[in-house]
Amino acid sequence: MKKIIYSLAIIASVLTLNSCLSDLDTLPLNETDKTAEQAYDGTLESYEKGLAYIYASFSLVSQNDPGGSDISVPDAGQSDLMRQYMILNEASTDALKCIWGDSYMTGIQYNTWTAANNEAIIAVYTRCMVTVTRVNEFLKQTSGGNVDGIAGLRAEARLMRAFAYYLLIDLYGNPPFATEDNVGGAVPTQIGRTALFEWIETELTELLASDSGLSDVGVVAYPRVNKGVAQALLTRLYLNAEVYTGTARWEDTRDAAAKTIAMGYKLCSNYEELFMQDNGENSNARQELIFTIAYDRDHTQSWGGTTHLVSGSMYDNASQAVAEQLGLPTGTMLNRERWNGYHVSNEYVENFELEGVDWNATTGLGFDRSKSDKRAFVYNVGHSKEFDITTTQSGWVCWKYNSRASDGTVYSNDTYEKFSSIDFPVIRLAEMYMAYAEAVTRLAGGTTTDATAMGYVKALRDRAGVSMPSSLNLDFLLQERAREFMWEGQRRTDLIRYGYFTSMSFPWPYKGNIPDGKVALPSWRTIYPIIQSEITENPNLVQNPGY
Questions:
Q1: How many domains are there within the chain?
Q2: What is the C-alpha to C-alpha distance for residues 84 and 304, in angstroms, rounded to an integer?
Q3: What is the pLDDT of residue 15?
Q4: Boundary of a domain, candidates 242, 263, 284
Q5: pLDDT in tens, 220-235
């Protein structure tokens, strides 16, 4: 189904809703392009194409090819939403470091970014605002339509807009706000982080109502959004409510997580299959995936997406060594292109329970994987323990995302050697288990033996092959989240919620541009700046504090 969605997105390129972010209105790129009024002709097919165009804003970088971007970022691969969302939430923490000299990456991983141009900050902000623009136009064009099925399409569009605003509230705090009811020439204003939280909450609650038109879980084909996505996103919103509004919502977090869990999702029995090349086609993986951004090597080729996760970390020796450890034929490379840039600090890897770690090893993975946490997809042979930004041979490299499929195929030496088909797991059932456990633990004062919460965490640890503690506490749960969600775009949000992101008591390499990271960051670093071009063009906007 994901191929159908994104094939429609390519066809929908006639819907040239080129966003002018200063007024969130839409105009054709040139005289040969159709306007929205021309493209939406009142048929279900035209509306489906419009919805596909909205979905595609999360995965495509242009309407032409993966080497060209339709937003103002020099490198097309660096303009992909999910690539830079992952960078903003992981490279700004202990989870991911990069030895490349790209200025945008340097600013993020040193926690020294400014309001001046930074490709990651620009890409995520712009892509989210483009999504808002496309949804607003879609809702305007479909208002009052009586075509069978239009109510469901409108509900899906609203949910995608709510997700875009969730990313904006989390990363940028107080973005400009516009819906289909207040666009059409006027430049947008800001409504404040708390008011935006309340709007997202209301929107998601309305979409969960029986008459919203949004489909129940399992009704529309994967990867289209449904009520499970709305309920899970509401859970994540409540989990971080204290950060966004100053008021904790732990009871609501617990209850929202429980409702999501009850919707019929199940854990994938093999953790690794969640991140394989065919995770979107594998029913074992799909039963846990609540919300993904779908990628396909035929229809959504991108140097962003999950391609950068497959290629960014590994190098020849590591790729071949890991392949041999997995029993693949000698000479097999686990990854396609090997860019050898992304690394993981030892401080982060120490969250995992690894047996037999040997920094002097000359073969293997650098630890005994058979006796360790099965979620640790890392390698350190020939590396120094302390991460050094100037060398490729320090810390650990990660192979969580690689070129294998669940049927044993290794896409290394065929016509698909460059691009990844792994769907990025935005939300999965394991997150709902962890959100429930954290909410119950916080409600209990920081430690709990609640049977339901313990059972959820035990299910994850059983799958990982590690033992269960006798009780849960908050620091353990944060470590468990690090183990379970490594490189899934959640680390920054977690550390902010725990109060550790800016704290001197929680160092990591190069935090605040200090090698040992023993420094406090200013509190305003918990959100990124509104991009400078927006501030310049829209006199209604006020820049975030500190910038």
A1: 2
A2: 8
A3: 41
A4: 263
A5: 999 999 999 999 999 9
